[in-house]
Design brief:
The protein has 426 residues and is of the alpha+beta class. The chain has helices spanning 31-38, 68-78, 106-114, 126-133, 164-173, 215-220, 237-244, 272-282, 309-314, 354-361, 386-396, 422-425, and strands at 20-24, 44-51, 57-65, 91-94, 115-119, 139-146, 153-161, 181-182, 193-195, 201-203, 226-230, 250-255, 264-269, 294-297, 341-348, 367-372, 378-383, 400-401, 404-410. The strands form five sheets. It has a five-stranded antiparallel β-sheet with strand order 16-17-15-19-18, with helices on one face. A four-stranded antiparallel β-sheet has the order 2-3-1-4, with helices on one face.
C-alpha cells in the first residue's frame, strides 16, 4: 500500500518520508561503491557525494531509496560497516527532511524514526492498537491522547516501535484510515539544526513538530485545542501551516488527505486560549481572495475532528456538515448544457467556500455552476433541470452548512430588452 504523497518539486527528494540516508564516509568512497553496497537492501534511486569546490569529496554522501522500509533496512544493516576498498566504517543516519523537521542528537533521531502518529476512532484502546500493529514488529509504547477530565480519546495516538524498520513497515502497510505519519519528537527549547544536501548546518524551516503533537502538552490541557478547517483546495499544506502559525503556540497542522491539495485540515494548538484566538481571527478570513476559511473547534463538529474531505463530502448523507439529510452526490451537467433554472442563494453570517457550495448543490443533479457576487454574501446556482432546482430549494432553504445558514430562492430571470419600434425611433 503506497503512502507516497503529492509534493512540490523541491520536496520530491524526501518522498516517501525517511527514504533518504545521510552517510559519513571515507573521502575515497565512490558512487559505484555506494550503489553496490546499498542496492542489496532495495531500489536505490540516487546517490550524491557532497564535494568541495575543487571537486574532491567532503566525506559525506546521500543515498535515496524508493521505499522507506528499504532505507530503514540499509540504515540498520550498513551502519558501522565498511564498503568498497576503504577500511573506514561508515556512519549511516536518516537525512533531515523539510517535512519532518530536524533532530539534534542520536536519541532524538531514533525516536523520530521509530514513532508513528496515527488517527484512530475515539473508542479505540491500547489493546486494539497493539493487536493491529504488533504484526509489523516489536512495539515499545502506545500512547492514546485523551481528554484529561473525561478520559475520552481525542482520536489521535502514538506508536513507538523497537526499530526504525518496524515503524517503516507499519507506515507503508497499515490501513490508510490511520493516516500514519512519522511523529517528530518534542522540539528542544534550545532549537535544533539539520544537515542539508550541501553538508552544512541549516536551521529547520518549520521549527516545531510538524506532524506529531506534543503528548505532554495535549494531555495537560483541559479544553479543546484542536481546530477543524475547511479551506480552498488550492491551498497547500505549507501555505496553511504558515497562515495558522501567525497565531503563537501552534503545535500541529495536517491536511486530512494523501495530497497536499486538500480542502480539510486539522490544526492543533498547545493551549485552548491559542486555539480560540486562531478561530476568532481566521474564521471567515478570505484566503485566497473569494474563498473564506471555515474554522471550528473540533468539539463544535458533529463528527470526529479529522476528516478525509473527499469521503466526507462524497460518501455521506450530509449529516456530518449539514443540518438536513442530503441525497448522494451526482455528476455535474455537461459544460454545454443550457440553464433551465437559476437559484438565488444567501449565506449568513458569511459566505461558504465555492468548492463547499458545489459539493452541496451537486447532490440534486444537473448542476451547471455556482458563483458568488463580488464582495457579497449572495450568489446564484445554475441548473440544467427545473426539477433539480426545485429539489435544491425545497431541501436547502433554511438549512445550515457548517453553521452558515442558507437561503435558497427562485431567481428572477432578467427580462429581454424590448425591441425598439419605429414609433420609439421617431
Amino acid at each position: 500500500m503506497s503512502k507516497r504523497s503529492h509534493k512540490s518539486a523541491n520536496d520530491e527528494r524526501d518522498d516517501p518520508p525517511m527514504s533518504r540516508l545521510f552517510i559519513v564516509c571515507s573521502k575515497s568512497n565512490t558512487e559505484k561503491e555506494f550503489y553496490e553496497a546499498f542496492s542489496k537492501f532495495g531500489n536505490v534511486e540516487d546517490v550524491k557525494i557532497v564535494k568541495e569546490k575543487d571537486g574532491s569529496s567532503k566525506g559525506v554522501a546521500f543515498v535515496k531509496f524508493q521505499k522507506t522500509s528499504e532505507a530503514a533496512n540499509a540504515c540498520e544493516g550498513l551502519n558501522g560497516q565498511m564498503i568498497g576498498t576503504s577500511s573506514r566504517p561508515i556512519k549511516v543516519l536518516i537525512a533531515a527532511s523539510r517535512n519532518m523537521g530536524s533532530a539534534s542528537g542520536k536519541s532524538r533521531e531514533d525516536e523520530k524514526a521509530q514513532r508513528l502518529f496515527i488517527i484512530i476512532p475515539k473508542g479505540f484502546t491500547e489493546e486494539n492498537l497493539h493487536d493491529e500493529f504488533d504484526k509489523y514488529g516489536e512495539i515499545e509504547d502506545i500512547s492514546i491522547i485523551r481528554d484529561r477530565k473525561t478520559k475520552e480519546g481525542k482520536g489521535f495516538a502514538y506508536i513507538k516501535f523497537k526499530k526504525f524498520s518496524y515503524a517503516a513497515l507499519a507506515f507503508e502497510n497499515c490501513d490508510e484510515k490511520y493516516k500514519a505519519v512519522f511523529a517528530e519528537p518534542k522540539p528542544s527549547r534550545s532549537g535544533s539544526s539539520s544537515l542539508n544536501d550541501s553538508g552544512s548546518n541549516a536551521s529547520s524551516n518549520y521549527g516545531d513538530d510538524r506532524y506529531g503533537m506534543s503528548h505532554d502538552l495535549m494531555v495537560s490541557n483541559n479544553g479543546d485545542c484542536a481546530l477543524h478547517v475547511i479551506c480552498s483546495p488550492m491551498i497547500t499544506h505549507d501555505q496553511l501551516w504558515r497562515l495558522f502559525d501567525i497565531v503563537p503556540n501552534m503545535d500541529y497542522c495536517k491536511m486530512n488527505s494523501e495530497s497536499d491539495f486538500s480542502s480539510s485540515a486539522t490544526v492543533v494548538y498547545k493551549t485552548q486560549q491559542a486555539a480560540l484566538h486562531a478561530r476568532q481571527k481566521l474564521h471567515g478570513f478570505e484566503y485566497p481572495i473569494g474563498e473564506r476559511l471555515i474554522v471550528k473547534l473540533s468539539s463544535e463538529m458533529k463528527s470526529a475532528p479529522v476528516v478525509d474531505t473527499q469521503n466526507f463530502f462524497n460518501n455521506s448523507n450530509g449529516a456530518n456538515f449539514c443540518s438536513v439529510n442530503l441525497p448522494s452526490p451526482q455528476a455535474q451537467a455537461p459544460p454545454q448544457a443550457q440553464c433551465a433554472q437559476r437559484c438565488f442563494i444567501v449565506c449568513s453570517p458569511h459566505v461558504l467556500p465555492i468548492h463547499v457550495l458545489k459539493k452541496v448543490f451537486c447532490r440534486f443533479g444537473n448542476l451547471i455552476d455556482v458563483y458568488l457576487l463580488s464582495n457579497r454574501n449572495c450568489g446564484y446556482v445554475k441548473y440544467a433541470s427545473h426539477e433539480s432546482a426545485r429539489q435544491a430549494m425545497k431541501t436547502l432553504h433554511g438549512a445550515e452548512i457548517y453553521g452558515v445558514k442558507l437561503k435558497v430562492l427562485e431567481a428572477e430571470e432578467p427580462s429581454e430588452p424590448r425591441k425598439r419600434s419605429k414609433m420609439d425611433l421617431d
